Amino acid sequence: WKIIRLDEVDSTNEYAKGIAPSSPEGTVVVAKRQTAGKGRKGRFWASPEGGLWVSVILKPNRSDPRLVFVGALAVVDALADFGIRGWIKWPNDVWVGGKKIAGILTEGKAGKFVVMGIGLNVNNEIPSDLRETATSMRAILGKRLELNEVTNRVLDHLGRWYKIFQRNPLKVIEAVKERTILINREVKVIHSDGEISGTAVDILEDGSLLIDTGEGKVRVVYGDVSIRP
Ligand code: BTN
């Protein structure tokens, strides 16, 4: 990795997209704070000092939406290195004990580059209005962690899963299935033209979620969906 460290930036994803055309694969942008951290669907992502706010520039041979799983797996495996059991909430959140601890936001230019943004709550304070639904490594372990160490663990695992992904994306899907919280749960998927309720039964080879509605099985492709367990 070639790591660019910033004290403050609007969004590491925006910064990374700006430099991506002229940067090699493996360029990483890390910031101590983001003033306009972005979540999915244009939501605001609180990014005060103490958390891991990182974007990785990748140049895969072809764009593949399943790449987002590489980021989620990297976070789950990094959490395990610190004794925390995390689960992937399909398609791109990581949860611990019923609360969200990390989110992944991939953006890019088809055929040119992918920016994989990872936000992981490490030592940062969780705003009071989010405490019911969000958590941090510090809240779980009851102590502060060395942020650099967490960053290195995440990047190590990311590099490893990215290599596996390039050789065989199905290995990545298999790993996601083992680490996902949705399977066999009742879910409600909200998408652009309606709602689907049922039991999540599988994650398919293309990365989509299979839901048994009682009247048949429906395949949900990620993108514009949100899920309520
Ligand atoms: C989500 O759960 O909605 C995705 C959150 C992604 C946040 C990270 S923090 C680093 C990178 N820069 C951003 O502006 N967003 C991502």
Automatic annotation (TrEMBL):
CC terms in the record's Gene Ontology section:
cytoplasm
The record, for InterPro entries, names: aa-tRNA-synth_II/BPL/LPL, Biotin_CoA_COase_ligase, BPL_C, BPL_LPL_catalytic, Transcriptional_repressor_C
Lineage top rank: taxon? Archaea
What CDD domains does the record point to?
Answer: BPL (cd16442)
Keyword terms, alphabetized: ATP-binding, Ligase, Nucleotide-binding
Q: Which SUPFAM superfamilies match?
A: C-terminal domain of transcriptional repressors (SSF50037), Class II aaRS and biotin synthetases (SSF55681)
Domain BPL/LPL catalytic per the UniProt entry, residue ranges? 1-166
Any GO molecular function: biotin--[biotin carboxyl-carrier protein] ligase activity
What NCBIfam families does UniProt report for this protein, alphabetically?
A: birA_ligase (TIGR00121), PRK08330.1 (NF006206)
Q: By what name is this protein known?
A: Biotin--[acetyl-CoA-carboxylase] ligase
Query: Native species of this protein?
Result: Thermococcus gorgonarius
